[in-house]
Amino acid sequence: MNVTPPEPPYGVIGLGLVGGSLARAIARTLPQARLVVVEPEPGARAAALADRITKDALDAPGPLLAECRLIFLCVPMQVLPTLLPQLAPHLHPEAILADVLPVKRPVEKLMAEALPAARWVGCHPLVGGRDPQGFQRSRPDLFVGRPVALCPRPGEENLAAGVGTVWAALGARPVVLPAEEHDRIVAVTDHAPYLMALALARVAGATPGAERLVGRGMEEALRLAGSSPSLVAAAVAENPFAPAVVRVLADELRRLADLAESDPAAFEAAATEARDARNRLVAD
Asked: Which of 8, 110, 189, 259 would you label with 178, given CA atoms 20 to 30 Å apart?
């Protein structure tokens, strides 16, 4: 396949952690590519201009977006139904829209309803927690070495390949797969860890005196619970695979608790299996 990346200029709508980091990464890695950003918060727009990330910072979608061939949608799930109709008058016929939400099939359906003629590639950069401080914590190397899922509609794999060249230029590792398969897999690898962190935070928060004995392991386990609920919880709730996965995890936790209580040798064997599985999944 002859892969052609989308031509600049590029657009970034939403300057949170991911959107701000995307804008910074494009400005640093592809300095010849003109960048148009859209962000309603004036402080983030001013910072993007002051940091010379862009010369074009809009408070709402406008005519400048019509020049962009690739537009990253870095907004919460609940914002998309309002945003997409606003984009309609300002889309170039060859523009590709690329959201970065952590669930893909619901976005695919929403795109089909709101902008049926638009070209779309769902993206999901797996970069860890979603920092509620957003643009203040954004950095250009956020995507280096991290996988980014690319979920084209059937027959539009060439669009995903083109968008993937941009992600690869920013240091990410593109992985192309259907939207439904993405949602099934990340229910285990991304959404379940978030839900487990929420549960642990709620249990620990209800334990008197717990704050006096919080070690490094607990800090790491709770990190995802610090993600913005409006960004993450709203999207995870749209994934139909997530509840079943968490119930399977709950059963496994009960099994491990029973082993720890009644069969220390079997519990140690299960812990060894878990360590080996962890080592296959995670490269240190």
From this structure: 8
